[in-house]
Amino acid sequence: MYLTKKEESMLNQEYGVAISKCMKLLVRLGDIYGADRMVKVSCSQASGVSYKSIGDPGIEFLKGFVEEGAKVVIPTFLNPAGMDLDNWKVFHISEKFANKQKEIIDSFRKMGVIITCSCTPYLFGNLPRFMEHLAWSESSAVAFANSVIGARTNREGGPSALASAITGRTPNYGLHLKENRKPNFLVNINTKIKTNSDFGALGYFIGKTVKNKIPYFSGIKQCSTDNLKSLGAAMAASGAVALFHVKNKTPEFMLHKKDIHDLEIIEFSENDLKKSYEELSDCSDPDLIVVGCPHASISEIQTLNKKLKNKKLKKKFWICTSKSIKAWADRMEYTKNIQKAGAEILCDTCMVVSPLEEFDFKCIGTNSGKAAKYIPGFCKKKVFFGNIDSLIKKGLKK
Ligand code: F3S
Q1: For residue range 245-281, what is the model confidence (pLDDT) as tens digits?
Q2: How far, in Å, from the CA of 51 to the mean position of ligand 1?
């Protein structure tokens, strides 16, 4: 793989040990995947933040990296942590877990990573441009950046995203190349897809079918940005989809109009939608309802504010979002109203990366296809998967 003079020097420790280690990792990746050269990236999104995911070895690795002088050179944003960094006591996180989590956050802070702790950095302060090269690692954010924005990123692992943040580069392969962004399947939608949970169920079904390939959707009449974030997240969870196209809705669909004629076709019917809902549920009476996977936008919180007006929830009801979005919700008094109805807004974390398995809940209600797919494995809990209205209805019952 071709390296510039500067990249050679970075590799040969002329810029320090940390940069050299990162270059070695990226060159190795580039060699494996046949990259011709490095490409400069404008920003990075680092995952592997929750203590639940990286444990003590992760803490030691990050501390060692800081000691070796690791510093990010491009804007780098952080994925959700295992707890609300300010309100962890309210959510019954143990002192031990909290202290470990703080050590992780400290290391990232010392490296210059912005402590956003969110999987939706594009909703506040980090909106990439069309065709901009990135090194993002959270799978739903990757799907969103590639598909809805038309930026270019592979589905990075935590270490490779951090290596790119520290060198400002990533190997030029995969979705950085135009020829690899062509669709592999045409998905015909033959039923109405309306809510975030419908899009989650569709994403769950298609991700399972296409695995890590690129679907092109036809027949989606209407969709919001929130719907597309649900769709991408679910496909990235049940499969490993990192890019999708939607006719008339996503920026690159026009480029592939001719490519779709020879593609294998997947039909998605009313029955497939129903079946996906059924497959994602294995309980019906949630004792905890959690929404905001991917992290809730201000419009989703605004909707909840409206739907929860004059209601009194009997079940625990959490809404996951970023600190930035919550600040807007506070200012609009949505937080106050939502709390009055008995729900809570949780920042910096989510139902999957928090230590939910340690809590006494048995059945988790969610409207997220991604969360419904992951909760049984990551949190050892049963799931009720439904739309927001059905969740609120269940939340109102004793
Ligand atoms: Fe985000 Fe957690 Fe879902 S990281 S996409 S809210 S599983």
Answers
A1: 999 999 999 999 888 999 999 999 999 999 999 999 9
A2: 15
pLDDT (tens digit per residue) in 85-135? 999 998 889 999 999 999 999 999 999 999 999 999 999 989 999 999 999
Q: Which atom of ligand 1 is least distant from the CA of 352?
A: 7
Domain boundaries, the chain: 5-176, 182-278, 281-396
Ligand 1 contacts (CB < 6 A) are 80, 119, 138, 140, 233, 293-295, 320, 350, 352-353, 370-371, 374
Query: 295 C-alpha vs ligand 1 centroid, how far in Å?
Result: 6
Architecture of the structural domain at 5-176: 2-Layer Sandwich (3.30)
Strands annotated E in the chain: 38-40, 43-46, 76-78, 134-136, 169-171, 185-189, 215-218, 245-246, 264-268, 288-291, 316-321, 343-347, 363-366, 382-385
Q: Tell me, in angstroms, the distance from the centre of ligand 1 to residue 119's CA.
A: 6
Which CATH entry fits the domain spanning 281-396: 3.90.940.10, 3.30.499.10, 3.40.718.10, 2.40.37.20? 3.30.499.10
